[in-house]
Design the sequence.
């Protein structure tokens, strides 16, 4: 597979999004054509807005952990996309003939690699993408744990994580 | 019959079935029918006023019900309904 091309302006916008929401996690989508990203969608992280027991994406252990935290603390260690925002983005992609390429989120305190929860949910989602008519995206992580943001992109398939390199220009 | 795809996190409620068949005339009807067979599932999909929660999408034949008629979206035999949990992580 060819390397994904992310324009500098979009990379900068993702970093800005992560910094604006820190210490909470941000999340969003990148879309484009032929391996070149041309649009970024910021998606609301609603993990702090709902009781953790309702957040059906997480496994019971994670829910139990999230339940012990305040809403603000939850948003520091987790994200849940507002699926209303997601649907609006999906519709915009369709209207503009764009393909979903990347799901991104930030790790305000941790390295730019998928957590166990990230891997589990991405693996659960593998069977969902084709059913909602979208290609399986790569997963991009923005770490803010050091002064200079660290950004890495991955494929997550069947519980296995591999590097999905990208170039910025 | 309408085929309903159940996502992994909700399968503990559906006796681990990934697909169930129901008869329903609308999404609201479908949710109530699911609730009768699989108690607890409605609360995972809808808030107290019956509106779809923001961390769930329901697609009818690949179209989001938010862009159809929401919970009043009509269903006919042969339709495929997918319940899609939020994209999430930690």
Sequence:
């Amino acid at each position: 597979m060819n390397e994904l091309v992310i324009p500098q302006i979009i990379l900068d916008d993702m970093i800005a999004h992560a910094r604006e929401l820190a210490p909470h996690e941000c999340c969003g989508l990148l879309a484009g054509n032929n391996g070149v990203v041309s649009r970024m969608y910021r998606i609301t992280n609603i993990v702090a807005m709902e009781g953790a027991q309702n957040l059906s994406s997480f496994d019971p252990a994670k829910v139990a952990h999230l339940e012990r935290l305040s809403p603000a603390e939850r948003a520091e260690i987790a994200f849940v996309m507002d699926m209303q925002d997601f649907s609006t983005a999906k519709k915009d992609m369709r209207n503009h003939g764009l393909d979903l390429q990347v799901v991104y989120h930030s790790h305000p305190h941790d390295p730019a690699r998928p957590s166990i929860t990230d891997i589990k949910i991405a693996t659960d989602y593998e069977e969902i993408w084709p059913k909602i008519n979208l290609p399986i995206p790569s997963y991009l992580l923005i770490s803010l744990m050091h002064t200079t943001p660290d950004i890495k992109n991955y494929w997550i398939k069947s519980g296995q994580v591999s590097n999905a390199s990208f170039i910025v220009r | 019959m309408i085929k309903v795809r159940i996502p992994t996190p909700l399968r503990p409620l559906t006796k681990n079935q990934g697909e169930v068949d129901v008869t329903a005339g609308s999404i609201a009807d479908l949710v109530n029918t699911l609730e009768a067979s699989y108690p607890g599932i409605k609360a995972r999909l809808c808030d107290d006023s019956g509106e779809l929660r923001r961390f769930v999408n329901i697609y009818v034949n690949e179209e989001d019900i938010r862009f159809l008629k929401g919970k009043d979206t009509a269903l006919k035999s042969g339709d495929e309904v997918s319940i899609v949990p939020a994209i999430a992580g930690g």
Notes: Strands of chain A lie at 4-6, 27-33, 36-43, 79-80, 99-107, 138-143, 150-157, 160-163, 166-168. The domain at 11-151 of chain A is CATH 3.40.140.10 (Cytidine Deaminase; domain 2). Chain A has one domain: 11-151.
